Fold this sequence. Notes:
Elements: H1 8-74, E1 85-92, E2 100-102, H2 111-126, E3 134-139, E4 143-153, E5 156-165, H3 167-176, E6 181-185, E7 205-209, E8 215-217, H4 220-227, H5 234-245, E9 247-257, E10 260-270, H6 274-284, H7 286-316, H8 318-324, H9 332-368, H10 379-395, E11 401-409, H11 412-416, H12 418-431, E12 437-442, E13 445-450, H13 456-473, E14 481-489, H14 496-511, E15 517-521, H15 524-530, H16 535-547, E16 550-559, E17 564-576, E18 579-582, H17 587-592, H18 596-617, E19 623-627, H19 630-633, H20 638-649, E20 656-660, H21 662-666, H22 669-681, E21 685-691, H23 698-703, E22 708-711, H24 713-721, H25 723-736, E23 743-746, H26 752-761, E24 765-766, H27 777-789
Parallel strand pairs: 14-15, 17-19, 19-20, 20-21, 21-22, 22-23, 23-24
Antiparallel strand pairs: 1-2, 1-5, 3-4, 4-5, 6-7, 6-10, 7-8, 9-10, 11-13, 11-14, 12-13, 16-17, 16-24, 17-18
Helix pairs in contact: 1-3, 1-6, 1-7, 10-14, 12-13, 18-20, 24-25
Amino acid sequence: MRYINLPFSRQFIIGVVLYLVCIVLAVYLAYYGTNRVNTSHAESMITAQSATIYDFMESKSHEDIISFIQVLDSNPVASTVPSNISYIEWISDDKGRGPVSRTPNNSTIKPHILENFKEQIRLLEEKGNRGSSLTQYMCDHECYILEYSSYQINNLSGKAIVALKLQSISELLENLNNRPTIMLYGISEQDNLLWLDQNVTKLSWGNFIEPNKRNRILNTIAKYRYSLNGKTTYRQLLDAICEDQQFGNYVITPISFNHQLIGYTVTFLPKITLGHAFKTGVLENLTITGVLTILAVVILCHYIFNLIRLESFFIRNRLRINKYAKSKNARSSDEVFALLGHLDSALNSNEEQTRQIESLQNKLEFYSNYDPQTSLPNQKWILEQIAHLQTERKVNSAIELFAVEFCPVLPQEFYDDEKICHRISTVMLNIIREKDYLAFYEPTVYYLLTTSIKNKTEMDELLNRFRRELAEQVNGGNEIRISAGIVQVLSNSISPAVIMKQTHIAYQHSCQLEVNDSYAVYNDSMNTQTSSIDTAFANRLKHARMKGDLIIRYDQVMNVSTKTIVSLIARNYWFQEGTTYNLDDFTDQIISAGLNTENCYWKVENALHDLSELDQDTNHNIGIIIPLNYGQLLDSDLPSFLDMVTVKYRIMPNRITFALTENAISNDITNCLTAIQKLSSAGYHFTLQNYNMGMMDMDFIREHGFASAMLSGSLTKRVLTSEYDRYMLSQMVKKWNENIEPVIILQDVDSMITMETFKELGVNLMSGSLFPCTQDLSAVKAFVNREDSI
């Protein structure tokens, strides 16, 4: 569409945008370019100025040394030492005169520094280099230049050992430079500033000279290093200072003394802003100002032309405007306001209709999520709440989520009566806590989502209370039975539909029990009994394995006392359409597809292959932790398979730990403990995941061969907020530490506060987002090798 045919309002907007773009572009091209030239001039001036300052500093230092040598030669007990000298020793070539040394009273140089330097001089002379000089940078409490040189002063000759204060360089630069400057000592590389990409070391020292002439030791080097996790390059350090202090570019110039590089000076330039260009550019560049003026006049003429067109429109359509706008006067301004009034009325009417439609949609959505007979949420609402609570658990791992499908066994006529249904719902709603959710799943069956329950024992107590209160308030005091299927949600990515399927499987299992408190906790063995072969999923999983979409990532278990890697936790992931999923979330489908054992073998062999490769590339004897489920643990061929792969990859069994959950053991505890004992006798270790989530206690873990217990993430969070939990855990740790095994491993550590709190309690092995996690093998090797090099 041609611009001239567009509505006036659109032409106006386009014109304003074009006008602003022209102004900004002109200012950027003219003034920013000019400032770049000024910056280039400033860089040249700083480089020349710094070279002059350092030449002057070196010359002045030599003059002070020569003058004081003459004083020492004539008066060995002279007490006045130049302020820039921390130590001087004159060794005359005249054999009749012994060495003379002077140390100022305010000198802080350590004797061992001087002794080490003198030892280097001695070794240098033993090699036959008696006429050579030696210059060295040293930094302890203060920074110094240690120099050993020969001097010929009139009729005096000899050698001098001098310690010059580097503080004097900063003071000299402070008086001659009016820009923010940082001086980095201890860098002796001259390879085109490649040192910028090396890590800042503890030997790096610096003075920071601010524009107001205050000179201070740069403690901010440590501050910026720690803000960047203590691992930062010089380039990152300088960029962080620029960002924090709002500087622009910086100029780097070398600091040399006696033809030896001892560091670099970094001078910061002010940031170039567009606002500065607006303030100063117009007066400095009249050509660009003239161009902008011409643009403004052209656009102004264009708007005048459009106003003329608007007035012509009113003249041509005056009768129509008077009829529909009903303006009292014939002036164009009244007609415009009348049209705007009609437009405002139409918009208000549309907004009111939109609000009414939204209100109706909210009511329809409300009724679609609630059961009309019990006034409780329905199955659709349950799915939404599970997804919502899983999102909360990603932020706060202390949240424990239990999903329960249960049925109070009451006469059918109770459920047919709407009033009694309301009474049943009211009784249970009065029992649960504020953040717990009760829903109506299907006729006679309820669904509970709770984050206030911490373990299976508390869940049993809540269901028993339901049973007692319903018996008393609804069933006339007669005892009733409750069948319940319980699922403890440990994954934040598992599908809500899968969770509901698991609770339903556990509920069906509980209905087969012949006791009043028939509560069944879901485990993998239930799914094996109730599922048929899922051929489609089996084909998808096999195709993903052949394609390479099944991968293993590793979480590191760190010993925070020795700061070393103790073990790697192997995690299986499935890469699908650009998204990575935890393969453990598909455990039900894997079991249904008949691939549970095959998946176990794939996981174990790939983990041991990676561990073998890690052994070849590093010197660390790191262990591996591999999670197993119920069916994988009880596989009769697992011991022989382990014998084969451990020999194949040359991995000793005592480096392999299998992680089990309490749910994996609880369904068939006798056979599970037998399998654990058999593998333990072969040298393999076992750890109990998510300890403190169920009924197993410390004595059970120790008696049945578990080498370690991994504390649950919820317990981690509770210890930080509950004095009771902190005390009880400290007592438990104290008892456990009396024996070598089992060892405590802390999961889900995500902050320094958590780490230090548990470290004080005696827990040293930790994993979580505070440490490297979800790494592939190359990242693990890089981390291990980097730790070795530090």
